[in-house]
Specification:
mainly alpha, 12 helices, single chain, about 75% helix
C-alpha cells in the first residue's frame, strides 16, 4: 500500500511539475512581489529605520522569505480549485490510485515551487548586499524551518482550494498571510510599536520564525525562539492537515 501510494504520488507530482515547467511565470510572479518589497524597503525606507543591524537587508531578509512562501501557496489553492472544477478529481477517483496521492502531489509541487522562489529571492538579496557567516549546518537549519513553514501554509491552502466556490475565493485567503509579517519583527523591531500592536506582534507566529532565522543568519544564540518557531509551524501543520483531510473526505464523498 505504501509503495502504491508513493508511486501514485510521484506520478501525479511529475504531472504538476510539468505544468509548472510549461508556465515558469508562476514562479517568477511569486518571487517578483517579495523582491519588490525587499528593494523598496532597502533603498527607500531602510535609511530611516533603526534596527541595530549592520545592514538592513540582513535584518529584512527573513521576513521577505516568509512573504515569498505566503505569496506562493496561493497558487496551490488556485491549481487545486481548477483541478476540481475541471473534473480531474472525479477522473482520478475512477482510477486505481491512492486517494491521498492527489493532495500530496499538490502539496509537494508547492514545496518544490516555493523552494525555487526562495532561492531566487536569496540570490537577489546577495546581489544587493546580504551577507552571512553561517556554516552548512546553519543553512540546513534555516532550510528546515522554511520547509516546515511551507508545508504548514500549503496544507492551509488546500482547505480553500477544496471548499472555495470561485477562483478569487480560492486564492484570496493568502492576502492576510502576506500582510501578517508587516505586523511582526520582520521590518522593524517590535519595541517601536504602540502597546496593543506590540503585544500582537510579539505573540504571533511570524515574529518567532523571523527572529529564529535572523539569529541563525547572524550566528547569534537562537535560544527559545527556535523552539517557539518550530512549535508554531508544527501546530499549524497538524491543524491544517486534519482540517484539509476532513474537507477532502467531504468533497469526494
Amino acid at each position: 500500500m505504501n509503495r502504491h501510494f508513493l508511486g501514485d504520488t510521484a506520478a501525479l507530482l511529475g504531472r504538476s511539475l510539468r505544468h509548472i515547467g510549461r508556465s515558469p511565470d508562476t514562479i517568477v510572479t511569486t518571487a517578483i512581489m517579495p523582491i519588490a518589497f525587499m528593494l523598496l524597503f532597502v533603498y527607500v525606507f531602510g535609511g530611516a529605520i533603526e534596527t541595530g543591524a549592520d545592514s538592513y537587508v540582513n535584518y529584512l531578509l527573513p521576513g521577505i522569505l516568509l512573504i515569498t512562501i505566503a505569496s506562493g501557496i496561493s497558487y496551490t489553492a488556485y491549481r487545486l480549485f481548477l483541478d476540481i472544477q475541471g473534473g480531474i478529481f472525479e477522473r482520478f477517483q475512477s482510477m486505481p490510485i491512492a486517494r491521498s496521492a492527489v493532495l500530496w502531489a499538490h502539496v509537494l509541487t508547492s514545496l518544490v515551487a516555493n523552494l525555487v522562489s526562495l532561492v531566487v529571492v536569496v540570490g537577489v538579496a546577495l546581489l544587493i548586499g546580504f551577507r552571512t557567516g553561517m556554516n552548512v549546518l546553519g543553512w540546513l537549519a534555516v532550510a528546515g524551518i522554511l520547509v516546515l513553514f511551507t508545508l504548514a501554509l500549503t496544507w492551509l491552502a488546500v482547505i480553500p482550494g477544496l471548499t472555495a466556490t470561485s477562483v478569487d475565493g480560492a486564492s484570496a485567503f493568502s492576502y492576510p498571510l502576506i500582510l501578517l509579517p508587516f505586523v511582526s519583527s520582520a521590518f522593524v523591531p517590535t519595541g517601536s510599536m504602540p502597546g496593543p500592536v506590540r503585544a500582537f506582534a510579539e505573540h504571533q507566529p511570524v515574529t518567532a520564525i523571523v527572529d529564529a532565522i535572523r539569529h541563525l543568519f547572524t550566528r547569534q544564540p537562537v535560544g527559545a525562539d527556535l523552539w517557539v518557531a518550530l512549535a508554531w509551524c508544527a501546530g499549524i501543520l497538524v491543524v491544517a492537515y486534519l482540517l484539509a483531510a476532513v474537507a477532502y473526505r467531504r468533497r469526494i464523498s
